[in-house]
């Protein structure tokens, strides 16, 4: 199950932290919230994002041999 943690700082900056999403699911999951809040000034992807890409690449390579 995906979860979104929302933190709003005293300076008004909003930070989202997503759990349970892999690959592009994270950006898809937060898209509507980001549009409602406003401009995204920074995005840091977690290691899970790259790990999914690597596993897809490995599967493609294995099926090609």
Written description of the protein model:
With 65 residues, this protein is α+β, with helices and mostly antiparallel strands. The protein has one domain. Helices cover 48% and strands 18% of the residues. The protein has helices at 25-37, 47-64, and strands spanning 3-8, 14-19. A two-stranded antiparallel ribbon has the order 1-2. It is globular. The N and C termini lie far apart (35 Å). The model is unreliable at 53-61 (pLDDT under 50).
Broad shape: globular
Q: Helix proportion of residues, in percent?
A: 40-55%
The largest pleated sheet is described as: 2 strands, antiparallel
As laid out across the biggest beta sheet, the strand order is 1-2
Q: What count of domains describes the coordinates?
A: 1
Rg calc:
15 Å
| Number of strand elements | 2
Task: Classify the secondary structure makeup into a structural class.
Answer: alpha+beta
Order of helices and strands: EEHH
Mean pLDDT over the residues = 77
Report the sheet-strand fraction. 15-25%
Uncertain runs are 53-61
Q: Please tally the helical runs, counting DSSP H or I stretches of 4 or more residues.
A: 2
Terminus-to-terminus distance: 35 Å
